[in-house]
Amino acid sequence: MLTKRIIPCLDIKNGRTVKGVNFVDLRDAGDPVELAKQYAELGADELVFLDISATLEGRKTMIDMVLKVAEHVNIPFTVGGGISSVEDVDVLLKSGADKVSINSSAVKRPELVTELANKFGSQCVVVAIDAKQINGEWLVHLAGGTVPTDLNLFDWAKEVEERGAGEILFTSMNNDGTKAGFANEALAKLSETLNIPIIASGGAGSVQHFVDSFKIGKADAALAASVFHFGEIEILDLKQELRANGIAIRL
Amino acid sequence: MKIVIIDYGAGNTKSVQFAMKRLGVEAILSDDAEIIKNADKVIFPGVGEASSAMKMLASKELDKLIPTLKQPVLGICLGMQLMCTFSEEGQTKGLGIFDVQVKKFNNQLKVPQMGWNSIFSLKSDLLKDIKNDEFMYLVHSFYAEICEQTIATTNYGLDYSSALQNDNFYGVQFHPEKSSTAGEQILRNFLEIS
Question: Is B84 known to be catalytic?
Fold first, then answer.
């Protein structure tokens, strides 16, 4: 049976993880490669690296990091942040990334999704969508959630699916950072509307939140950052609990 | 031992090369018929679309070379699918090494299948020391049906071949290079096959 995936997300700036992590047994908690290896050993099913470097130099460092992760880590990983062209994706995939995640650049130029799917295949094209529920309507936001658009979440998700996206990474901005649970109602609607996998993001605070994202939100995967980085939830414990709740999980 | 990864412009060659390196083996990338023929082991990777991959193979005449190879050959993901007789993806004729067709998953399912799924009914030295129901990482929209050459099955809406073998030719639908320690064991097994 295809299992639900647990995905830690690492923010990378100039080749280093930021926001910090408190794994006591790591020599260098800022080194994305060491951290990635650690997560792979702990049972993470996939990893996401989000590049938040604002400079060209930071981008170059990111490519070096992707090469090192591909060299040392034996589970799949996605790279996102600052990707806006076929060339950007080409270099990341050639460096060993399994998938790329695009966000604002897809909204600005939806043809990019089609171009990437045609050239590299849908399996490596993740479209990340940040959305916020305003007066009952889920609206897509850009630039890390700071710039609102008039795009409806479900219409946009359907469009990118039709253009060849292989997966949707949906972050609810209403939930992100709250540790009060995922946006399960919107997730379930996405999952029922679309025929591609949906990754839940934003709001993880407890094991029960993950259970709910799969059972109520019908998500195919759940992504989180701080609860894993700060050891509030251990991946192995989480996966055992999920399985005890009747959810298909790789252990 | 000389390991050659067939380089025809498709897919995940870097990841496969790195996975071999983690096992302490230096694998080289090549599209040169002589180098491929003289390798001890050949890996035929692939990520992407079947009809364009077949065109790339044909442009380098690798479609004629691969079925004649005598050493152990391991097709991965699209590589395995191209070793079958026919694929519904782009209505493409394959290399005909495995006597089975490649079909598209039913649209009642989420496609691509993406993630970790179990492999069952294991046969062959390729899967030595792998437990029945071990998890492997898969990403694919098309599948090979069950046939006499099936050496592992997986269920996604239906049972299909997640690994195939015909004499010295092996194929796996999953990505051993991305399937944690169990995937590494399969690559190690492949290196030990004589």
Answer: no
Buried/exposed code over B107-128 (b: 16+ C-beta within 10 A; e: otherwise): eeebbbbbbbbbbebbebebbe
- Number of domains observed in the structure of chain A: 1
Condensed to tens digits (0 to 9), the pLDDT of residues B61-98 reads 999 999 999 999 999 999 999 999 999 998 999 999 99
Give me the residue spans of the domains in chain B: 3-192
For chains A and B, CB pairs below 8 A equal: 88
Structure confidence by residue, pLDDT tens digits, A44-71: 999 999 998 878 888 888 999 999 999 9
User: Considering the domain boundaries, does residue A235 fall inside one?
Assistant: yes
Nearest CA in chain A to B185: A74
A15 vs A100, which has greater pLDDT? A100
Q: Is B146 exposed, middle or buried (0-12, 13-18, 19+ CB in 10 A)?
A: middle
| Cβ pair A197:B110 closer than 8 A | yes
Task: With CB atoms and an 8 Å threshold, state whether A196 touches B111.
Answer: yes
Q: Is residue A251 part of a domain?
A: no
The helix (H) or strand (E) run that includes residue A187 is helix A184-193
CATH architecture of B3-192: 3-Layer(aba) Sandwich (3.40)
Residues 47 through 66 of chain B touching chain A, CB cutoff 8 Å: 47-49
Q: Which residue of A has its CA nearest to B10?
A: A120
Summarised one tens digit per residue, pLDDT across range A77-91 is: 999 998 999 999 999
Nearest to B120 by CA among B161, B79, B169, B78: B161
Is the separation of the CB atoms in B65 and B157 below 8 Å? no
Residues of A in contact with B112 (CB under 8 A): 122-123, 166, 196-197
Q: Which of B89, B134, B140, B175 is catalytic?
A: B175
Q: Is B87 on the interface with A (CB under 8 A)?
A: no
> Is there a domain that residue A84 lies in?
yes
Domain membership of residue A212 (yes or no) is: yes
Q: How far apart are CA B15 and CA B12, in angstroms?
A: 6
SS3 of residue A105 by DSSP: helix
Chain B residues whose beta carbon lies within 8 Å of the beta carbon of residue A221? 115
pLDDT digits (tens, 9 = 90+) for A143-154: 877 889 999 999
pTM (two decimals): 0.95
Verify whether the Cβ–Cβ distance A122 to B135 is below 8 Å.
no
| CATH at A25 | 3.20.20.70
ipTM of the complex: 0.93
pLDDT tens-digit series, residues B153-186: 999 999 999 999 999 999 999 999 999 999 999 9
Supply the range of the domain harboring residue A162: 5-244
Minimum-distance CB partner of A195 among B18, B111, B118: B111
